[in-house]
Amino acid sequence: MAGRWALEATELREGNAGLVARPRRLRRLANLRRLVRETRLTADNLIYPLFVVHDGREEEIPSMPGVHRWPVELLVAEVEQVAALDIPAVILFGLPAAKDAEGSEAYAEDGAVQRAIRTFKAAVPELVVMTDVCLCEYTDHGHCGIVRDGQVLNDETLDVLGQIAVSHAAAGADVVAPSAMMDGQVGAIRAALDEAGFPQVAILAYAAKYASAFYGPFRDAAGSAPAFGDRCAYQMDPPNAREALREVAVDIQEGADMVMVKPALPYLDVIRQVRDAFDYPLAAYNVSGEYSMVKAAAQRGWIDERAVALEMLTAIRRAGADMILTYFAKDAARWLQEEG
């Protein structure tokens, strides 16, 4: 053996009386374990995703037990509860009243997200309001950009993403989070925000967003599954890790204030590599499929939901994430309060 943890053979004596290393000494008591704990998970690390619709009634999403689509007028009580749990931020996903090829409601002044931002900021001004900036929920084809002749057009989409971000900022958003995975989207949004007089609005870049099979329940919730093809031509290829570092570097160069890896659990190695390579605030998205698998297994009595969820979120923190977007945010905050 060589390296930092190498021990001389003479130190590894056999027999209980002769053991040199006894790591269990520091595991014996709960408070000892607390004292030497390396990774801390608190409500400070959590961001709660919310699905917003124009009006109607609250609806639970069948594939995401405990997660709802919220009409704007019913959301104040929900965000007040989030704030009472000391969760510092929410991120909003909008469901339009009508979809079209251009996703025009995404940047409408009276869109669901824009109305929700104004409502939140009037009711709970201290809550950080983040917004997803993309087109997939708003387009009738379900892709994240402008489509012509069956192709998703990168550069033509950038102006639209800028319009969306500016509309969110004008409504009072604190952070915009571009997730379309169009090349140059962070730079285009930064320029649009600055030109419109919103230099204070931060950008959380979905820098390493993979073309993952774990998004299924979200697409059910948002009605955003592609009507044709898939998103592999613009979202990242799951086998690639070095490419994630390149994507993160580009977004930082373009003006991102924070960066994200999505999904979280299958990409803990990527989170760690990004953490080691960049001294920037790092988010990870504990996505819908990760959430729904835990919920489904817990409902069948196969696992302890609370224990598994907290272990999962702690693992994401341990990998290097500063903040976690998770549908478990409210439950996790309660559980952590109970643990003291």
Offer a concise description of the structure.
The protein is α/β, with parallel strands linked by helices and 340 residues long.
Can you tag this structure with a few keywords?
eight-stranded parallel beta barrel, 17% strand, TIM Barrel, globular, alpha/beta, 11 helices, 340 residues, two-stranded antiparallel ribbon, single chain
User: Largest sheet, if any?
Assistant: 8 strands, parallel, barrel
The helix-strand sequence is: HEEEHEHEEEHEHEHHEHEHHEH
Strand share of the residues?
Answer: 15-25%
Helical proportion, percent range: 25-40%
CATH class: Alpha Beta
Shape: globular
Query: DSSP helix count?
Result: 11
- Whole-number count of domains: 1
Quaternary structure state of the chains depicted:
single chain
Q: CATH homologous superfamily, by name?
A: Aldolase class I
Radius of gyration: 22 Å
The CATH topology corresponds to TIM Barrel
Query: In terms of structural class, how would the helical and strand content be classed?
Result: alpha/beta
What is the residue-averaged pLDDT?
Answer: 90
Alpha carbon gap, first and last residue: 41 Å
CATH architecture: Alpha-Beta Barrel
Query: How many individual β-strands?
Result: 12
Model regions low in confidence, pLDDT < 50 over at least 5 residues: none
Query: Widest sheet: strand order?
Result: 1-4-5-8-9-10-11-12
